[in-house]
Automatic annotation (TrEMBL):
Membrane keyword on record: yes
Annotated keywords: Membrane, Transmembrane, Transmembrane helix
Record has NADP as a keyword: no
Transmembrane segments: 67-86, 92-109, 116-136, 142-162, 174-200, 212-235, 247-264
Superkingdom field: Bacteria
Protein name per the record: Predicted membrane protein
Pfam families listed in its UniProt record: BaxI_1 (PF12811)
Amino acid sequence: MGSPIFARSDVFGEKANAAGYAPTGAQGQQAQYGQQYGATDAATLNTMYGAPSATPVDTGRLTYDDVIVKTGGLLALLVAVGAVTWVAFPQLFFVGAIVGLVLGLVNAFKREPSPVLIVAYTVAQGVFLGGISSIFEGQWSGIVLQAVLATVCTFGACLWLFRSGRVRVTPRFTRWLLFAMVGYLVFSLVNVVMMFAGVGDGGFGPLREGPLGVIVGLVAVGLASASLIVDFDAIQRGVRNGAPKKFAWSAAFGLMVTLIWLYLEFLRLLAILRGE
């Protein structure tokens, strides 16, 4: 249970091994040759088996480079749109939030990735983040840089923990994260309802203020960080199982969802710590 695109996917989910994608490498070549050439003579078969194994690039399968390139491109687009919004029309952040939410749900429930919709989601989130970051920066100078640095450092730490094997994604870990995220979602909805009902002093809602707000913020950052690790595991599973190359868009979208969530939680936590 990381980003929705990973949790529901037949490519990145826990049932990915049963998705039916063809094997790659020497075994995939042998199976392909066996089906295509059947009763070919021994000399030809020896030549085939002696050929170099096909790489993921040769077979059109997902690679880590594909995911890195797609994610890097989307992040660059997000930053560019956010910068323009910050300078020109920060008041449109609410429009970006609504459009981004709708496109995020559409992308999350699509079985096949749509590059156009994923790019549109990134643009909408760029408008949202650029506007909201401008508002926060106007009230707490330097807070955006702090939130960006905290997000980058957390991403690096989570990647290191995952690659080093110090944190392993097990079914128990995934179930714990699922229950915790559902609980956090319910908590957030209650907080929003109370805020619109006029309870508290405004700001981030009565349940996200003062010491309680700091505790909740730390929990939220922890959940987003755990989601990143689950995302890394899902991407590793997709690459290992030879998922089609087009799903690099899905992987990039999933990472974007989690990174945006993590950044917003840091932004809110830092604002609470610096005083409303």
